[in-house]
Amino acid sequence: MHSSDGGVTWTTQDLGAPPLTAITGVTAVSATTAWIAGWDGFVSGTKDGGQTWRKETIVGAEQVDFEDVLFVDAQQWWVGGNIGIWKRSRTR
């Protein structure tokens, strides 16, 4: 869900998550860039305020139930889950 009026109204967004995936972590880098993490290795990001989301694949973590995502800066982030922590550096 996304709100642009301080939570008065909410709209749903298609995150591309598998069915029954719990979203357990959210980190906003700016007003337009945010990342989410959840069950079954799910990580997705937006650069346009949530209008579109792009799923990320973390090789070897497809079955991990991620609990949270944390950004060091706009290019480096960490996700943690039930069996480990993964670091990701973006080159794009």
In short, what is this structure?
With 92 residues, the chain is an all-beta fold. It has strands at residues 23-28, 34-38, 42-46, 54-56, 66-71, 76-81, 84-89. The chain has one domain (23-89).
Please give a structural write-up.
By secondary structure, the protein is mainly beta. It contains no helices and seven strands. A hairpin with a 2-residue loop joins strand 6 and strand 7. The mean pLDDT is 82.
Query: Could you estimate the helical fraction of the residues in percent?
Result: under 10%
Strand order of the largest sheet: 1-2-3-4
State the distance separating the first and last CA atoms.
26 Å
Number of E-state strands: 7
Number of DSSP helical runs: 0
| Total tally of structural domains | 1
Main sheet specs: 4 strands, antiparallel
**Structural class by helix and strand composition:** mainly beta
**Proportion of β residues?**
35-45%
Compute the CA-based radius of gyration.
13 Å
What is the mean pLDDT?
82
* Low-pLDDT stretches: none
Specify the overall morphology: globular
Element order: H for helix, E for strand:
EEEEEEE
